[in-house]
Amino acid sequence: SPAIxxxxxxxxxxxxxxxxxxxxxxxxxILEVVSEWKDNKGNTVLTENTRYIFKASKTGWMVDHxxxxxxxNGPVKxxxxxxxxxxxxxxxxxxxxxxxxxxxxxxKGNPTTVKATDNTGVTGMYVSxxxxxxxxxxxxxxxxxxxxxxxDNVPVSxxxxxxxxxxxxxxxxxxxGYGLFSVNxxxxxSYDPKQEEVVYNxxxxxxxxxVHRFYIQSGSELTPDGAEEIFTDFSKSY
Length: 238
Fold this sequence. Notes:
It is a single chain. The protein is mainly beta. It has one helix at about 225-235, and strands spanning about 15-25, 30-40, 45-55, 60-70, 75-80, 85-90, 100-105, 110-115, 125-130, 140, 145-150, 155-160, 170-175, 180-185, 200, 205-220. Helices cover about 5% and strands about 45% of the residues. An eight-stranded antiparallel sheet has the order 1-2-3-4-16-12-11-9, covered by helices on one side. The protein has a four-stranded antiparallel sheet with strand order 6-14-13-10, with no helix packed on it. A two-stranded antiparallel ribbon has the order 5-15. It is globular.
């Protein structure tokens, strides 16, 4: 990330794709990959086996993301952190309009200021399964979150669905007006200070499975009722 100073980049780990296990087309596309999570010294901490399932419905397109994190080389401690876990960044058109500079803080209280800019063509709005809208969606638990807007005069909706079998379900929404759209199953106290801190410990050989659905609808806006139908189908699929 360009936000990390060059003299600090060696303090961070990284994820390296090792191989493509399967790539299949057709009505249902499948891509399976194996990746390794490495620490700042290059040691493998986790092995991730990920399956992407690409499908189309009568109303839109979807990608199911099925990830299994394996502690292959020793115990792994996953701490309570708001930076995760399944995320996309969206085009400027789907950011939320704002006339004010916004200040966001990380889990250590460090502030980041996002300056106000021209709102021409900026049309985004979040809606969540618990009835929240806009900035109020951030830091709330939801089984799904929709982001809708207009691009080139075409209404478009994006939605992220959390699976009921995931740890930390329903996930916290890490959804920001400046275009970061994420749901996080592994953070709790970092979103709501009143909650207990959540720590996941994986012994060597243990794994954690996370399943999410990313949905895109173009030409019409996805409604909460429509999202509920998709969620019902998704929750029965895995």
